[in-house]
Amino acid sequence: MTSENKNILLAEDNPGLARVLSFKFLSCGFEPITCADGHSAWCAFEQQEIAAVVTDHEMPGLSGLELIARVKQVRPDMPCFLVSGRKLELVRDRRVKELGIVDVFGKPFSPSSIVNSVADSLKIALVGPPIVLPIRFPATAGGSFIPGPSP
């Protein structure tokens, strides 16, 4: 992976969750490539340079574990993440460890936690709008306040 590659393959069959994840990755400087099933995700993986894979487990076509198994055959170093409503079952599944899945996220999930985990695994600083906090000065009896040391 080049340091410029920020393509994140998102495989999620729920359109609402796919939109939320895609928006969050995009707003943090990544380029999400969203697919609605495992087969189309595999095709996208074969056709584009991908930096990381985030996949739902239960999808039409290939399951998330099947997709990750294929990805790891081609790119053993690829950071892969699994999202599932069955997190408790999956964290005990030997395949999760064997495939080197970085993290398993349970549904409901925080999109920020997924993006942060992906960014950490890729050693990428997140991009986002700067946080600007308003500066408020205390009101004085005279109606104005000049910041500085007290007299």
Can you give a write-up of this model?
37% of the residues lie in helices and 16% in strands. It has a five-stranded parallel β-sheet with strand order 2-1-3-4-5, sandwiched between helices. It is globular. With 151 residues, the protein is an alpha/beta fold. β3 (52-56), α3 (64-74) and β4 form a beta-alpha-beta unit. The chain has a single domain, classed as Response regulator (Rossmann fold, 3-Layer(aba) Sandwich), CATH 3.40.50.2300.
* CATH class category label: Alpha Beta
Bin the strand percentage. Answer: 15-25%
Overall radius of gyration: 21 Å
* CATH architecture designation: 3-Layer(aba) Sandwich
Q: Total number of helical segments?
A: 6
Helix content range: 25-40%
Largest sheet: 5 strands, parallel
The CATH homologous superfamily is called: Response regulator
What class, by secondary structure content? alpha/beta
Number of strands: 5
Features:
6 helices; single chain; Rossmann fold; alpha/beta
Describe this structure in a few short sentences.
The chain contains six helices and five strands; from the N terminus they run βαβαβαβααβα. The protein has helices at 15-27, 38-47, 64-74, 87-91, 94-98, 111-122; strands at 7-11, 31-35, 52-56, 80-84, 103-106. This is Response regulator.
What's the helix and strand layout?
Blueprint: E1 7-11, H1 15-27, E2 31-35, H2 38-47, E3 52-56, H3 64-74, E4 80-84, H4 87-91, H5 94-98, E5 103-106, H6 111-122
Parallel strand pairs: 1-2, 1-3, 3-4, 4-5
Helix pairs in contact: 1-6, 2-3
Protein name: Response regulator
Modified residues (4-aspartylphosphate): 56
Pfam family, one: Response_reg
